[in-house]
Amino acid sequence: MTKPKNDTLLRALLKQPVEYTPVWLMRQAGRYLSEYNETRARAGSFLALCKNRDFATEVTMQPLARFPLDAAILFSDILTIPDAMGLGLYFSEGEGPQFERPLREENEIRALKVPDPNTDLRYVMDAVSQIRKTLDNQVPLIGFSGSPFTLACYMVEGRGSTDFRQIKTMLYQRPELLHHILDINAQAVTAYLNAQIESGAQAVMIFDTWGGALSHNAYQEFSLRYMEQILSGLKREHEGARIPNVIFTKGGGLWLEQIADSGCDAIGLDWTIDIGEARQRVGDQVALQGNLDPNVLFAGPETITAEVEKVLSSFGSGNGHVFNLGHGISQFTPPESVTTLVEAVHTLSRKFHLKEC
């Protein structure tokens, strides 16, 4: 496999020396870009955008045309797996994702099957292959999936939730049913990410968006355990290249040591923890990704630059840092704020790597 001309992200995830701190943004292809909104309008719907490889390629490339980002991330959705399981994913304007057939009955849960990523999710693999070809090895392509627990939240609740009443009731009253869902999901995510790697993804990320809603013990049992199961079955090399992986648990700052022991290469951090403290806690065991508050991007250029400097200074000198937001970029973000952010990271971070290269 030919390595990207700019492989800074891959080296940083593997804690290898770099000239500057690489940066990419969660949800970097999205509604804050006018060209994305134009493409989505042509596609007709969000799902049509995801399921057409030409549209998915087009929007994946859009932020790279605007900003000198150090990676592309596949344009898709975390709920492709439960959709392929037959739960009937749909999007209502202003209401987010919903499922026509949420999992409530035991017989439905027991009947869950692991989808074949190369048939049931072929459109994702086609998009990965086409995006990788279009990138022409300029920067790496990141593939991703939702975590087993995060997927289960949507599958059981039927939609996004604020109190997670349905799934937490199952967790405490019928834990064996939730474990069954999570095991099927873990098998599905493992196969899905491996298929993305085989199709051209050069790094992969697991989004555990709702793991932070769990209690301490429940997080270990119902979220981290199944991400560890995925990591144990994940391809670490493909065509002679190392494939780094990242785990991001929103609200996961309480469990950094346990996440670092999971077998991951890097931990994604939200904005609620100081990245320097996180580095002290995990040492050189894993790389760290993050963790600017996305709302900083609503401030002026001076403030954005100052806040970037704070994150870089807190991490300090040395390798193993990928700059990112602490969660996805807001649809209301001015694109010029992203320009300021990327320029600030690339410029200000070089002094922290002088001894590395």
Quick check: average pLDDT? 96
Return the CATH class. Answer: Alpha Beta
In the CATH classification, which architecture applies? Alpha-Beta Barrel
Q: How many beta-strand segments?
A: 11
Enumerate the spans where pLDDT stays under 50 for 5 or more consecutive residues.
none
Largest pleated sheet: 7 strands, parallel
Helix count from the secondary structure assignment: 15
Q: What class would the helix/strand composition place it in?
A: alpha/beta
Distance between the termini: 24 Å
Query: What is the chain-wise order of helices and strands?
Result: HHHHEHEEHHEHHHEHEEEHEHEHEH
> Order of strands in the sheet with the most strands?
1-4-5-8-9-10-11
The rounded Rg comes to 19 Å
User: How much of the sequence is in beta strands?
Assistant: 5-15%
CATH topology: TIM Barrel
The global form is globular
Oligomer: single chain
List the helices and strands and how they pair.
Blueprint: H1 8-13, H2 34-43, H3 46-51, H4 53-66, E1 72-73, H5 80-84, E2 89-92, E3 96-99, H6 106-110, H7 122-135, E4 141-146, H8 148-157, H9 165-173, H10 175-199, E5 203-208, H11 216-233, E6 237-238, E7 241-242, E8 245-249, H12 256-260, E9 266-268, H13 275-282, E10 287-289, H14 301-315, E11 321-322, H15 335-348
Parallel strand pairs: 1-4, 4-5, 5-8, 8-9, 9-10, 10-11
Antiparallel strand pairs: 2-3, 6-7
Overview of this protein structure:
The chain is of the alpha/beta class and 357 residues long. The chain has a single domain, classed as TIM Barrel (Alpha-Beta Barrel), CATH 3.20.20.210. The protein is 46% helix and 11% strand. It is built from 15 helices and eleven strands. The chain has helices spanning 8-13, 34-43, 46-51, 53-66, 80-84, 106-110, 122-135, 148-157, 165-173, 175-199, 216-233, 256-260, 275-282, 301-315, 335-348, and strands spanning 72-73, 89-92, 96-99, 141-146, 203-208, 237-238, 241-242, 245-249, 266-268, 287-289, 321-322. The chain has a seven-stranded parallel beta sheet with strand order 1-4-5-8-9-10-11. The protein has a two-stranded antiparallel sheet with strand order 2-3. Strands 6-7 form a two-stranded antiparallel sheet. Helix 14 (301-315) links the parallel strand 10 (287-289) and strand 11 (321-322). Helix 13 (275-282) runs parallel beside helix 14. The longest helix has 25 residues, at 175-199. It is globular, with a radius of gyration of 19 Å. The two termini are 24 Å apart.
